[in-house]
Amino acid sequence: MAQNFLDEPYVVATILNRVFNDQSPQPAVYNNQVAMATSVGLNTFALSFGALYAGLTEDQLSTRLLGNLGVLPNADLQVAVRDYLVSVGKANVGIVALQLGQILSGLEHATGNQAMFSVAAVAWNKELADSYSFSTNPANDQARPPGWEDQPFTGVTLSLTSRDDAISLTAPEARFKSTANNDTFLATSAGFLSSTDVIDGAAGVDILKATLAARATVAPVLRNVEKVYITAGAGTEFSAAGTTGLTELWINGAEASATFSGLALGTTVGIQNSASGGALTVNFTNANGPADAATIALADATGNDEIIIANIETVSVKSTAGTTAGTTVNSARITAAQAEKIVIWGDQALTTTVAGVRVAVVDATALAKALGLTLAGTSGVAVAVNAQAAHKITLGVGADTLKIVGLAGAEAKDINLGTSATLAASAIEVSGFASGIDAIHLDAAKGTAKAVPGAADLASIAASASLLEATALAATTAGANKAISFRFGADTYILVNDATAALGANDSLIKLTGVAALADASWTSA
Q1: Predicted TM-score (pTM) of this structure
Q2: Distances (CA, A) of 509 to 185, 433, 475
Q3: Which of 266, 267, 407, 429 is deepest in the core (most CB within 10 A)?
C-alpha cells in the first residue's frame, strides 16, 4: 500500500482494525468506520477507537500493538513504546497505534538500524491490502477474526513437477495458476523443487512445503510466498537469495545437518517436529551492521537440534508448541558467535545450551514455561528469568549475574509443599554459581527485604530433618515479605516469603546447587 495513501480515511480504518484487533471488519462495519473518520477527522476517530482499550495497561497495549504489527519479539522496542505511552498518556493510544502502522508501512526498503523491519513492513503492507480487499467486498458478511490470514480462504493447492515449473496468477494452465487467497504449493518428492522453478503466490499468505534430496543446493525464485517448510536430507542447502516477501522459513522434522542461506533480516527461521536432531546453519545476507537482530522459532523441536547463526548481535528464541501430540519441551543448542544478547520467550518449555563468547545478556523473562539453560563458552553473562516455572539454570565461567523477577506472587509458580521431594522439584535450581564471583538479584512481586537471621537461627534450620522442615523454619524465621538465605545439606537455598510469615505455596524457593556458603554481597532482594 503506497505511502501517500496512509492518511486516507479508508487506510486509517484498516490500520486501526489490524493494529488493535488483528481483524478485518465486515463491509457494513468498515464503511461506517470510514464515514466516521471522514466526518470527525482522523485524529478524533483514532482517539475514539483507542478509547475502547482504556482498561489495558501501557505494557499490555505496547505488547498488543507491536504483536499485531508483527515486530515482536523485540524487548527494547516493547519497552520504548510502553514508556512512550506513559509519557503521552494512555488516552492517546489510538493516535500512537495509527502512527506505528504508518511508520512500519514505510520501512519496506529501510536501511541501517531500521533494516530489521523491512520484512515485517512487506508483510504488514500486504496484510493491509488483503484486509482492505476483504472489508470492501460486499459478499463478506462476517468479520475475519484474528489469525484469518493463516486460514485457507478459497486458496488452491498446487503440486510442482519434476520439470521447470512457473506458477503465477496469470499462468495459462489451471494447474500452475495461483490465486489472490491463501495458496499451498507442494513439492513432496525430492527434486521437484529446483533452482529453475519460479513461484509467485500473489496475494494472501501462501505456503510452500518441499522435500529436498541429500547434499542438494536449491535456490528457487519465490515471490509473495510467505512461509516455506523444508524437509531436508543431509547436507542440504536452501538459498532464499531469490525470494521476496518471505517471512518464515522452517526445517521440518530435522534429522540431519542443513543450511539456510541468502536470508533477509527479519525472516523468522524455525525448526519443527524434529526427533533425532541435526545442525541447522543460518546465514543472513545483510547482517553487516553493529546491532542486527534475528528470530529463531522452535516448535516441537525435541531432537536436541543445534542452530548455528553468525553475524547477529541479538538473537530472539521463540519456544512454542507444534503439531506433535504430547510434546511439552523444546530442546536445542543455540550457537551464536557474534551474539551479545539472547532473548527467550514463548509458551512452551525449553531446554537449551547457549554458546557464544560475546554473549552478555540472556533475557528469558517472557518465557511462560520452564527453562533449562546452560551457558557454554561464555563469560560474565547477565541472565534474567521469571518465577513462573521451575527453571534449571547452569551458569558459565566468569562473573555471571542472575536476575529472577516476579517471585512470591500470584503469577509465580507455586511451590509444592507435599513432601521434601516435591518441594525440591518445584524450586528454581541454579548450578555453577560461585559465591563471591557471581551475583543473584531477586525481584519479588511486592518487594521484599533481606532477613538478617542469627547464627543460632541458621544452625537450627541446617539441623532440620528434611528440606520441607528447614524451609518452613526459614519462613517463620524470616517473617513476611522477607528473603532469607540458608544452608541445608550440601546446598544453599534462598526463600522469598510473601505477605504471610508461614510457609505457603505462593512463596518462592531458589536452590544454589553445591554452594556451601553464600556471601552476603553475592545476593540482593527487592
Answers
A1: 0.71
A2: 51, 16, 11
A3: 407
